[in-house]
Amino acid sequence: MNVFLQGVLLGISLIVVIGAQNAFVLRQALARKHILSVICVCLVCDIVVMGFSVFGIGGAISQGSVWFFLLGVCGVGFLLYYAASSFMMAYTLLRAHKLHQDIESKNIATTRAKAITMTLALTLLNPNFYIDTFIIIGGVSASLDSSAKGVFFLGLIGVSFVWYFGVGYGARVFSSFFQSPRAWAALECFTGCIMCALCYGLGTMLYATYMEM
Q1: How far from 21 is each of 9, 56, 63, 212, CA to CA, in Å?
Q2: Which of 13, 83, 153, 159 meets the CB 3.0–4.6 Å disulfide criterion with 192?
Q3: Residue 16: what are its φ and ψ, rounded to 5°?
Q4: What is the rounded CA–CA span in Å between residue 25 and residue 38?
Q5: What number of CA atoms fall less than 13 Å from residue 34's CA on the CB side?
Q6: Structure pTM?
């Protein structure tokens, strides 16, 4: 039970945060566009990559500061790009008098294929996803024996299921509020600020890693 709770608490600290993937899930949920497909893709990605991290290569990668540094540099670039995109979208929305379809579709996938593609891109092309899974989760799970790793993994995945379905279907309660372009602009500004904060935190860790190399 202690190992399961360890997996749950670590999963909460890593998953329950507004990152690029979660921001996209929230947008799709508010727009009520193909949210089940988005949730399923997120869960499959978590199960596969976390599985590799817990049962496979995560422990080895977590020991290499060079790997962390390289992933971190890519992660900083990704976060800065995403933050800039969010702030630009917020500016565009603030200038709009109403939510036009062409504005709304820039950050929202209107077709199932596009929703799946964007979810995969924001998950698998995000270096921070691998820092969380291979470096942090892999490092924690490296000290566990085989039977404990399975329980630890169930705790992690349980958080993913609860979080994605909770955001995906719970956010619909606020969908009427987001009929205004100002509300969407506020969400984009909030997302951009979170990305900048994550970038600062990651940059601080990278600097410490560089000094130790």
Answers
A1: 20, 24, 26, 31
A2: 83
A3: -80, 70
A4: 7
A5: 17
A6: 0.76
Taking the C-alpha atoms of residue 99 and residue 96, their distance in angstroms, rounded to an integer, is 7
pLDDT, tens digit, 9 for 90 and up, residues 134-192 = 777 877 777 778 788 889 999 999 999 999 999 889 887 777 776 677 877 887 788 88
DSSP states along the chain: -HHHHHHHHHHHHHHSS--HHHHHHHHHHHHTSSHHHHHHHHHHHHHHHHHHHHHSSHHHHHT-HHHHHHHHHHHHHHHHHHHHHHHHHHHHHHH-SS--HHHHTTTS--SHHHHHHHHHHHHHT-HHHHIIIIIIIHHHHTTS-HHHHHHHHHHHHHHHHHHHHHHHHHGGGGTTGGGSHHHHHHHHHHHHHHHHHHHHHHHHHHHHHHHH-
Joined tokens for residue 62: 């977590």
